[in-house]
Amino acid sequence: MHGPVQQQCDISSILTFSCGLCSRRKKSSMHLMLSICGSTQHVISIASRAVDTMSRAVSLCVLAALTASASASSDCSSSREKSGQGGLSMLQRRDTVEKGHLGSGNDGWINVCYFTNWARYRTGLVNEGRDAFEMGLDGSLCTHFMYGFATVTPDFMLKSNDPNADHPSGSESQDGLCPEECNDPSFSPDWSDPDGVRCEWPCSATRVRRGYEALTVGMKQKNSAIKALISVGGWNFNDCTASSSATYGQGAATCELFSEIAADEGKTRTFAANVIAFCRKWGFDGFDLDWEYPVVEGHNRVGGGESPEDYANYAVRHSITL
């Protein structure tokens, strides 16, 4: 199995992210971006700051990096970049970025681009059923891509909520990247080798890449310095007032999961290990935790009120070492 996460990870480059105020419904949104490297030791380091937004809503701005080294002696560190706008955001505008320097942080610039997998289904647009990667997105526009959204199962596993949009050729059965040989359109199988790679559907060598592999393989072929992160959560995932049928298996069925995970160290460890496995399987460099919203009524308890314990639990659980 192709393993680009381990091959392309640079432990000297710590991915960073900050969360500010979310304009939708004037609530606070919490994001955590983790960078995953290596395979031996995983350390989470955090810097956080609370910002008053309303009389009872707060935004916890998190700067986080999850790194791992090939040896147990490697260290992790995180740093906050300056934006010149009160420090609430480290994202700065940049028109283009040079190949080979994306995500390095050497010049202080990062361009984070959110990608939504459901955009392919919008009608009346130029995409005509395709995602942005299928349409030949420029590899020099963004340093980091947030691919939204994956969902979480009751046993704290990550999975695609729409295999048609996310998996190779839209196949639910192809639950992983295609063999590396199948990324070469000129590949010809050795039929004399009974165990040889065949590159048959859904991994045909001439397939049009979509979803996960279009980002973690296709875009990285255009620019190997791009960082690809899977976004987990989102509005539907955290909306306790929505039925499961109206949110494609999410809503009331999933809205309590982030609060449940944050409240228990064992569940946090299980979730973290599953996130790492998912990212390695699909070639992601890390993940973005989009919790909408901690503490807030209607987003963490079905039929219940606020969950004030989320605030402390969220920060405490990210001080653990795996």
Automatic annotation (TrEMBL):
A Gene Ontology biological process term: carbohydrate metabolic process
Pfam family, one: Glyco_hydro_18
SUPFAM superfamilies associated with the record: (Trans)glycosidases
Record region (Disordered): 160-180
GO MF annotations, alphabetized: chitin binding; chitinase activity
Keywords of the record: Glycosidase, Hydrolase
GO terms for cellular component: extracellular region
Family annotation (InterPro entries): GH, Glyco_hydro18_cat, Glyco_hydro_18_chit_AS, Glycosyl_Hydrlase_18
Residue stretches making up the GH18 domain: 109-322
Highest taxon listed in the record's lineage: Eukaryota
Family (UniProt): Belongs to the glycosyl hydrolase 18 family.
The name this protein goes by in its record: Chitotriosidase-1
Lineage: Eukaryota, Sar, Alveolata, Dinophyceae, Suessiales
